[in-house]
Amino acid sequence: MLTNHIFDSIKLEYADMLDMSSLCRVIKLFKPDEIYNLAAQSHVKISFDQPIYTSEVVALGTLRLLEAVKLIRPQAKVYQASSSEMFGNSIDEDGFQRETTSMAPVSPYGCAKVYAYNICNNYRNAYGLFISNGILFNHESPRRGINFVTNKVAREAVRIKLGKSKKLTLGNLKATRDWGNAKDYVYAMWLILNQNKPSDYICASGISKSVEQLCEYTFSSLNMDYKKYVTTDARYHRPQELNDLKGDSTKLLNIGWKAKYTFEDTIDEMVEHWLN
User: Fold this and answer.
1) Torsion (CA) 208, 209, 211, 215 in degrees, nearest 10
2) Catalytic site positions
3) Residue 128 three-state SS
């Protein structure tokens, strides 16, 4: 069951990635030692509908943040949330994507993330700032928005089980993704930022599963056959499809990271949340 206990231990302040003055104000106010930039319009399908807004927030928003850090708090360590979407359909011969894999994004979101990734490396090299990119593959939890496929599937499967819905409509069932658990990946963010030198790291499970396999496992965990309930509609296909994602986390493993949760653990957690 999700709780909001953390709110007793944190202070929230408003800022806007479109407004550099608000970023400057918050940095001046708190003088942070560590800054984690997770701000984004992060839904890939929506980025096709809102490409300019997505780029303003994800790409230029990151630049505004870096400028604020450079001007006000250059000693702060900055974590940039990079994305596996930056690779697009570029994949190494062994089927993996790693830090050295070329980037060929296939969505406005992925393109914006590539700009943010590159501008972070530029500011790191040009100004000596401590900026690390965490290239995180899909990481899931019950807090994931229900317009993302994992929680969409978990929620609707439970609704069907309880008689509140009759079918689940999805897009490309053959697309594969490397799904991990958000708790493991947040620990990776902290670990990346607490190294002696800034660098770029991939965080992934190294296991790729299709959307169809996601449906099969989720529905079977509720003693149902997904084939009786899951349908497809071309409306949910991307204008340019990203087919396969599978990350190689060797570099991150070498600094002490290790996943505690499996794909199945994560989906079970999401299903249990919706049952409750």
Assistant:
1) -150
2) 83, 85, 109
3) coil
